[in-house]
Structures are given as structure tokens and as C-alpha cells.
Amino acid sequence: MTLIFLLYCGASFLFMIGLAGVAFLDNFLKKIYALGFMQGAVILFFIILSYRDGGDLPIFDYALSEKVIPKMVNPIPHVLMLTAIVVGVALLALAISILNNVARKFQTLSEASVKAQILLDKKNIEGQLVND
Amino acid sequence: MRIIQVIFFLLLLLVFIGISYELSFKNNEISTPKNIEIFYLEESRKSHATYNVVTTILADYRSIDTLLETIVIFITSMSVLFIRNFMIDKNRQSYRKFIEEIDCIYSSVTRNSIIIIFPLLIVFGLYVFVHGHYSPGGGFQAGVILATAFIMHSYVYANKYNFGFFLDRYAIYLNYIGVLIYFAVGLFGIIFSSTYLDYQGLSAVLNLSAKNLRSIGILLVELGVTLTVMSSVYLLFRGLYCESEDGNL
Predict the structure, then answer these.
(1) Which residues of chain A lie closer than 8 angstroms to B58, CB-CB?
(2) Which of B56, B91, B100, B186 could tie B197 with a disulfide, CB 3.0–4.6 Å?
(3) Could you tell me which of B104, B103, B100 has the C-alpha nearest to residue B92?
(4) Cβ proximity of A109 and A117 under 8 Å
């Protein structure tokens, strides 16, 4: 039950909360929020991966005194996660703008209504084909 | 059906907890291949005047990745505007109707507090941008903070004559100018030195030592990133906030 094990468990809990939100929620906008949760959990996982016991910031001192290099936290996952955050922002913005088109077509934001409308459309189309 | 889904989720959670138990023993040994982080830390100590190693990796050792990142966020803001049919066109009829209606929503409490918070946020954003060399910060973070300030301002102060602060007129231009500044700093490397984005090429314009040239190069590159990210996030807000043409959603 070390601290690092609990931190990893926290990241996996966040990921599962996000995944459960995407699967079980009814409102499409809330599903997009749950996607943001999953993104945050993955980024947190990489940051915990770069941690070291007794770790220090990867920033040298003003006096350039001997801040020990082997004690510094690994800076490379931090750099990669900056890229990942930007990609996540782009993804969420485009998802919301596509959701706008979906909501305009079906006039609703609920998954059950969209499913019902699609099934109704299918029944009407099948009815017409049978009649023809 | 629901019970099966819940059981599946709990099993997946147990798998993740098992993986974290295995990983938690190896945290002091996990490193990037061939201990490359030791290489980055020592090299940036020797040949850079910036103290923040994350900034030197982002803007000097992996600067092409950062250039492509700014292009990604630039393309995202433009495509959101295209999907919404460029709703910031001020002569559209529905846009004008939308602006007239939102004049009276917010109370004087929010208006008066925005007056106090807005300059503080701008100063804080510029602080984070300039101190990217010496503390956690840099271009991306400062761009988002500045965009937040302008978005808050235009929530409250929009009326039928302007939708917000001066950023509204120049946001698309600033979006392009940020990427062009980044691109131009790279071209200095080709013209006066060896490779693209080699900051030693700035020695033709400035007369400084190698360490300080790299610092100035990183600062110019972060300036481009800040302008692009600020305008892009502001344009994302403006592209998603307006009403559509026929009034439905």
C-alpha cells in the first residue's frame, strides 16, 4: 500500500469513471465530459510514471548550485503530455461542434430518443419497400 | 443486461488495479530507453541558459513537434468555424438578433467583478509566458490563460455594437501570425547557419553568446505559440457560442 500504488489506483479509478460515464449516461454532452475524464486519467498516469522517490523539479537553481541531476524527475513524459493536452482540447471542441449537427437533425440530446427515431425510420422505410 | 455490464466494468477495474500493483515496484527503475533523460538534463545544463529543462526539450530539442502542435490547434479552430459556417460574420441577420437579446442577461455583480479580474488575468498570463524559462509555464499555458480573460470579458460586455474586446477583430489574423513567427525563426537557421530551427542562425541579427541566443530563440518561439493558442481558444468559444441561422439550436 505504498503511495505510488495508491496514485496509480486513483488514475485507474478516474479512467473507469469516465468509461462508465460514456457507456451508461443518456445525455450526449455528458458523454463528452466523461471523455475529458478519461483523457485526464491517462495524462495523470504518465505523470505518475515519471515520478521518482524524493524527486525534484527538473529546473536548475538561480545560483546554478549543485541540484543533483539523478534526483530529478524524468522530464520527458511531461513534454509529451503537453502535446497530449492540446490534442485533447482539439478533440473535445470538434466533438461538440459535430454534436451540434446531430442535435439539430434529431432535435434532442438524449441517446434513447435518437435510437427510437432511428428505429422508427427503419420501420417506415421497410414498410414502404414491402408495399412497393 | 445491466448486471452483466457492471460486472464487466468491475473486472476491468480489477485488471487496472493489478497492473498498478505491478508498476508501483518499478518506479525508480522505469526510464526512457537508454536513460536518455540523463542526456537531456546534462546537455541542457551545459549549453543552455534557461533553467527549465522541460522548456528546452519542448522548444529546442523537439521543436518541430511543437511547431506541428501549434499547426494542429490552428487547424482545429479554423475547422470549428467552418463547421458552424463562420458565425462570426457580423452582418448576418440572426447574429444581430442574437447580440441584441443578450445585452441584459448578466447582473451588475458579474460586470463589476469582471472589471477587476480582467487586467489581473492579463498580467498573470503575460507573467506565465515570460517566466517559462525559470518556472513551470511557457507558451501553451499562457495562451489559455489569456484566452480565458478575453472570453470572460465578452460574456459580460457584449452588446449590439461589438461582441467583445479588440481581440474579436484581430483573432483570425493573430492565429496566422503566431504560426508565421514560429516558422520565421526556423528560417533564420537555414539562411545563416546549418539546419532548420537552429537558433545559432540568429547570430546574424543579434550579437550574443550561444547560450543567450538559444534563450532568445526559445522566447520568440514561445511568443508564436502563445499568440496562436490564445486566438484559437478564443475562436473555439466564438464558433460554438453563436446561434445558428434558422434559430433552431
Answers:
(1) 79, 82
(2) B186
(3) B100
(4) no
Task: Summarize pLDDT for B174-191 with one digit per residue, the tens.
Answer: 999 999 999 999 888 888
* E strand spans, B101-213: none
Q: What contacts A105, CB < 8 A, 6 or more positions away?
A: none
- Please state the ipTM of this predicted complex: 0.82
CA nearest neighbour of A118 among A103, A106, A129, A131: A106
Q: Is the predicted pLDDT of residue B47 greater than 70, yes or no? A: yes
To which residue does cell 433552431 refer? B248
**Looking at the whole model, is its pTM more than 0.90?**
no
Nearest to B59 by CA among B129, B139, B158: B139
Please tell me the number of Cα atoms within 13 Å of A35 on its side-chain side: 17
Residue with cell 503511495: A3
**From residue A101, how far is each of A8, A117, B105, B183 by CA, in Å?**
38, 16, 26, 35
- C-alpha A97/C-alpha B32 separation (Å) is 38
Question: How many residues appear in chain B?
Answer: 249
Average pLDDT for residues B91-117, to the nearest whole number?
Answer: 68
> CB within 8 A of A61, min separation 6: which ones?
A67, B51
A65 touches chain B (CB under 8 A): no
User: Contact A104/B248, CB-based, under 8 Å?
Assistant: yes
How confident is the model over A88-127, as pLDDT tens digits? 998 999 999 888 888 878 888 999 999 999 998 888 877 7
Q: What is the mean pLDDT of chain A?
A: 87
Helix, strand, coil shares of chain B as percentages rounded to 5?
A: 75, 0, 25
**Which cell is B8 given?**
464487466
CB B222 within 8 A of CB B59: yes
